[in-house]
UniProtKB/TrEMBL annotation, chain B:
Membrane-protein topology: Multi-pass membrane protein
Annotated ranges, domain ABC transmembrane type-1: 80-271
Protein name: Carbohydrate ABC transporter permease
PROSITE patterns: ABC_TM1
Family of the protein in this entry: Belongs to the binding-protein-dependent transport system permease family.
Organism: Paractinoplanes globisporus
Positions of transmembrane segments: 21-42, 85-105, 117-139, 151-171, 192-217, 253-271
InterPro entries: MetI-like (IPR000515), MetI-like_sf (IPR035906)
Alphabetized Gene3D superfamilies for the sequence: MetI-like
Organism domain of life: Bacteria
Any Pfam family the entry gives: BPD_transp_1
Keywords: Cell membrane, Membrane, Transmembrane, Transmembrane helix, Transport
Coiled-coil residue spans: none
Record localization: Cell membrane
Amino acid sequence: MQAPPPVRPRRRGIGWAQRAEIAVLSGPAVLTFLTFVIFPVVLAGYYGFYKWKGYGVPTNFVGLQNYKTILQDSSFHDALLHNGMIVVLSLLIQGPIALGFALMLNQKIRGRSLIRLLIFVPFVISEVIVGTGWSLLLQVSGAVNGILDAIGLGSWKQDWLANPKLAIWTLMVILTWKYIGFAVILFMAGMQNIPEELAEAAAVDGASYWQIQRRITVPLLAPTIRIWGFLSIIGALQLFDLVYIIWGQYVASTAGTSTMVTYMVVEGRNAANYGYGNAVAVVLFVISMIIALVYQRFVLRRDTEGALTDGR
Amino acid sequence: MATITQSRFTPKKGLPWGNPIVYLIALVLIGLMLGPVIYLILGGFRDNSQITVSPAGLPHPWRLGNYTGILQSGVFWRQVGNSTMVALGTTVGVVVIGVMASYVLARYRFRGRGAMYALFAAGLMFPATVAITPLYILVKNLGLVDTLPGVILPQIGFGLPTTIIILVPFLRAIPREIEEAAAIDGCSRLGFFWRMVLRLSVPGLITVGILAFLASWNSYLLPLFLLNNQDTFTLPLGVQAFSSQYSTDTAKVLAFTSLSMLPALLFFSVFERRIVGGLTGAVKG
């Protein structure tokens, strides 16, 4: 760690010293971010106007043709619909379950650190492994159907991955299993910020456990829940790895689990239509942006207002 | 919410056992969360005929060959090494430059602060997937394709938005009074940052550090594009390569996937305790 700078009187207003501090502290992050995130994204926008196979400099300018094709392609409409379902279902399924987990783990009971550790296991495992493992479990001759047979529920056996009526729900189960730990981590960190005195005072006044959770813990956790909601929505819009690993590039659309990003990779990179793929990326970005702005405007406003405007 | 709570009046008692129903629910949940993982690990101890005959059965007899074979191969250990270096590089980079930028965003007033925050927040909407082709070209022009820094640098960039979004509220929650007291004692803003903020934000730093480490450890798409040389493969690429090389040997694939998730699990179980310690120790001190 660096030695602390020499003591000097505090400045008011924004002098050159403060400007220098701001530049030195935020410079590395801004520079890295502009180079490796913003610049490639802008470039993707540029390529989106070209018909480009990925070699050399794109020359075949086609204007908005790529975008027209995307918006008229029914496979893209399907992918968009699936993304929409995944966004809504993730919030509705993961939110309450994670809140329950976090409340349970926030109690002072024996063995809670072990329970907490075990609940996070799926979150820690990589998408490649989760995908590989669940495809083996869920294939027709796999362990899930094997267990159903063994406990006498053989008639419940299903083709969990290929049946288009089921596949999206299978995906939701896997997503919940995989990402619930992230929500629980955030909620529990948020709960640590709630002063214990509030609950203690309420208990002294005769409030029951559930009253305390409903009237104190959950309301004070609301900013954390809203941030989680934001991250969950964005993550759901950009879902790729798991679907691609489990369903592969051909099956996702027939099983009804394709997403905008799998569409982008299949139609863009795999078909060597890089210009088209980049145009899909732009559409995905615009959709994410609109949803994010609406969410920030109407849901996160209370949180970001404090963070950005009042300068407390 | 950001007051320093003094818990010295709460009597410390041993933890009660609590409601048995809570334990029952916890047990069921743990079973659901761990079941598939245990299946993977046990599957690695079986052979293919066992798996075909009874997909949900236990190993009988137990076979160690799948595991010992992989542990004796240099490929697996090289991939563990690559993954470790990429994940450590990414984590250190993201946390160090992320907390510096978050401090500026949380506690300085200047024109353009809102724009800077919005810029990073907008980054949440770009997964690496969106920019993967231009990113590949950029990294190639920098001469970093097939090198580990070629993966680390973009991962730092893409890790910054989450880090900053989580850290800014955290740093803002440090009470104004502490900063004023430090200023009265002659502490500059930078001094306040080095002496107080870093220490008070340890739980937040650990949280974002763990998230960055895991995201990097598990990252699939970026390495897939940027690392083509088998010698530079990270574990997820290794799992993919292994499972296509031995696509008919399910037991071997199960063993390889089980082994490759162990390092992340160990890492997490060590640091999970640190989170708890950090959360109870830092601001409450």
